[in-house]
């Protein structure tokens, strides 16, 4: 399976050149530990741009992509509903997998994936998700070392305009994986599980479906209990009024400072647009689209984030910021910076490298991600039935966390000299 | 029952000259619609100071206080466990009642109180609580008028050092009404009920008891659902690390700007102090205590508050601030100031005046407060049993809310010319 040498950049094949790929592109082209070599996407324009701008090969099918010997690892960034099937094909070809969250859209699919992974023994990482954000891993490391005593509770809040950004039809249909639980709780739950050690015991939740023109979940509040008695409260609202970036120093999810907290899209903006046009609108601003500008602005001093997050341990409360950790004791704050690469989302490549080149267990493996999705499914079920849902397939953090190396170390990010080539 | 004329200041008798009274004192002495005339407290020093500084009579028993013809309304600010019994005596004497939150410490007591109120027909208001804060009533007024469409969800968060302030032994014993659920959820739940219309349907909650030297609830997270499908997430942590005043512009609960968010007392500070000494420590800084300084600093431009509160309706999200309401639509914020009296907590006197002088129904009546306590009891029960608790004794807002008059109106606050005399 490992075709490269221990120090060669990992050859990455991509399935799906849409929004997720567009957001990961700065990472792929700037991090010298990876190089894009191939892609599959039904959109001809995107394939063309991939060949022209990035110099990689494009294929018609996932099966063909997997025969390309330059492809060591496959980044699956297609819509949710394709993840399970495509993982099966890639795993059968023996390639390592980085698959976008959510892992899959039913628990059955998640089980099938775990089985495939067990059988084929291919390395699997589920991400990017915001649980890769530097300050999340940093806080989880300190907490899991017991630095602040027992971890007791967490609180997470995020208010965005998720529901009103241009969407594919599936993204507005819960049965097909639409709504904020599949796409956003997958981030928030994963993050809180990493901070709290992973073992969720029960879930109670309410969801909101408040706009009949976008008939899927646009908001939720969930209460999670953890093994040992800790608990967490998670709240997400994607209806596009309050913008919780104001709690994060007006830095947006991607780590950029914003002059304004006004949303690009809000309720009603897309109400005159039909499904097909809306899908086109979504595609236009992504790779291969008419309005696409490669987003590789000057490096930002900020980590990416997923809203306001507080974790309480016996000896301190920790607030995650876009630069590191605010540690509160007795109301007084001290700040600990989280080392940051100039490459955004370098933490994803850290894990890919550790798994593919160094044979380590993934932190965000298939069982881990199944457990996160079990919580997401429980949020929907609890909201529907009014019951407390007990969880059965949780797993604890599978390996010791270690903070990303500050600089200079062998496995640390090195930025390419000529990114984009 | 009404001994005064329609425009006379209401004569107030006080039961319990401790912390709560100390915090209300600026209101009693500055608001010209009320005057302190009598008090009962087992602490001789406090009674002495009451006579000397405030010129009122003091009595040995509640029964005697109630025979004082100058007493029109009685403010019950004794420890929780005395509220029910003392209300019974006061109601039998036909005096109006303002009783501190929590109404009582068992649902049975709450029922008995409602029965007494029904029988005697005395006016009852339960407060002060932070649901009287100007911005809460202002937001509730706009929301209940349907100004922003259907109300969908709310979120409340408060992190303090509640557990580490000097306490009486009962305050650290849940069975006697100790811990943050009785003393702090009583504020937070009341506030959220007013904003959401009152009718809670179900409660799921977790509580934290994480310091064996203070063996009562120091934290909770609760999920409330409301009639019609709205929901709210409430989180409170009183363990004294993070200080959520930083989300309120560093304005504290009482409306004062603070240079520092460091807490006066934190974990361990009282660990060498025995129960009796700790009770004395609590008393020392209150009325009649050795370290008491009458807290009547220059008027503040800020309303009091109980942490960070967001309410979402279809057409807007509202964030309560210490000066009014931030109203968000599409991420853009507009601000609406909430009129503020120079007398702190004038809203309590507004309601007392409306009820005693104008014969209006209280907003914070006994049934209303019983419903708030039903939610608090459900928080404890849900945390203990792991179940979702259905509520049975909820009541909707009993009268149309109206914002407090801006100025000059007949029933608006007028500050005394010579406060403290
Ligand atoms: N981690 C993140 O920050 C993030 C952000 C956005 C999306 N995502 C995830 O990425 C995935 C894709 O979402 P998106 O928003 O990029 O969607 P998208 O519609 O923008 O992109 C999907 C792309 O996949 C292509 N595609 C469709 N069917 C395909 C198939 N069968 N095989 C190969 N390619 C196919 C489409 O043409 C399109 O280019 C989702 O699972 C989503 O949850 C993650
Ligand atoms: N609304 C608020 O902001 C607020 C703040 C603090 C307390 N409170 C409420 O006020 C009540 C009292 O709490 P506290 O913190 O002031 O307690 P405290 O101990 O500071 O004061 C209680 C006072 O009542 C006196 N007392 C004790 N037993 C009495 C009795 N049987 N009859 C008459 N007086 C008696 C005590 O001597 C003391 O002076 C509680 O119900 C509490 O929840 C409300």
From TrEMBL, chains A, B:
GO molecular function ontology, one term from the record: nucleotide binding
Keyword terms, alphabetized: Oxidoreductase
InterPro entries: Gfo/Idh/MocA-like_OxRdtase_N, Gfo/Idh/MocA_oxidrdct_glycsds, GFO_IDH_MocA-like_dom, NAD(P)-bd_dom_sf
Residue ranges, annotated region (Disordered): 402-421
Top-level taxonomic group: Bacteria
Signal peptide: none
TM spans (from-to): none
Domain GFO/IDH/MocA-like oxidoreductase span(s) in chain numbering: 137-243
Boundaries of every Gfo/Idh/MocA-like oxidoreductase N-terminal domain copy: 10-128
PANTHER family named in the record: BCDNA.GH03377
Name of the protein in question: Phthalate 4,5-cis-dihydrodiol dehydrogenase
Organism: Eoetvoesiella caeni
């Amino acid at each position: 399976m490992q075709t490269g040498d221990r120090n060669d950049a990992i050859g990455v094949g991509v399935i799906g050149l849409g929004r997720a790929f567009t957001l990961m592109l700065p990472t792929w082209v700037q991090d010298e530990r990876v190089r894009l070599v191939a892609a599959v996407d039904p959109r001809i324009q995107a394939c063309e741009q991939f060949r022209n701008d990035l110099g990689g090969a494009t294929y018609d099918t996932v099966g063909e992509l997997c025969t390309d010997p330059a492809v060591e690892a496959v980044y699956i960034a297609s819509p949710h509903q394709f993840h399970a099937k495509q993982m099966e094909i890639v795993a059968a070809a023996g390639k390592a997998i980085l698959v976008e969250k959510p892992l899959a859209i039913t628990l059955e699919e998640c089980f099938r994936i775990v089985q495939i992974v067990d059988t084929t023994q291919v390395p699997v990482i589920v991400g990017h998700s915001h649980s890769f954000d530097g300050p999340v891993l940093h806080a989880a490391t300190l907490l899991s070392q017991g630095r602040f005593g027992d971890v007791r509770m967490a609180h997470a809040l995020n208010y965005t305009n998720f529901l009103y950004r241009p969407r594919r039809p599936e993204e507005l249909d819960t049965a097909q994986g639409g709504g904020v639980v599949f796409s956003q709780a997958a981030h928030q739950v994963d993050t809180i599980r990493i901070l709290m050690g992973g073992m969720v015991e029960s879930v109670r939740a309410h969801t909101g479906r408040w706009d009949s023109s976008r008939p899927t979940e646009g908001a939720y509040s969930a209460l999670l209990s953890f093994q040992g008695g800790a608990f967490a409260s998670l709240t997400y609202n994607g209806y596009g009024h309050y913008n919780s970036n104001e709690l994060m120093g007006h830095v947006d999810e991607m780590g950029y400072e914003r002059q304004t907290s006004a949303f690009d899209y809000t309720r009603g903006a897309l109400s005159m647009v039909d499904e097909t046009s809306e899908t086109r609108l979504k595609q236009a601003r992504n790779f291969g689209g008419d309005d696409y500008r490669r987003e590789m602005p000057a490096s930002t001093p900020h980590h990416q984030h997923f809203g306001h997050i507080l974790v309480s341990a016996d000896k301190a409360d920790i607030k995650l910021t876009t630069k590191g950790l605010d540690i509160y004791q007795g109301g007084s704050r001290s700040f600990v910076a989280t080392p940051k690469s100039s490459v955004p989302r370098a933490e994803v490549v850290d894990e890919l490298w550790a798994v593919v080149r160094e044979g380590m267990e993934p932190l965000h493996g298939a069982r881990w991600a199944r457990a996160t999705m079990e919580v997401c499914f429980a949020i929907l079920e609890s909201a529907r039935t009014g019951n407390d849902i007990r969880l059965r397939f949780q797993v604890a953090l599978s390996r010791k966390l270690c903070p990303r190396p500050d600089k200079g170390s062998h496995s640390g990010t090195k930025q390419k000299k000529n990114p984009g080539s």
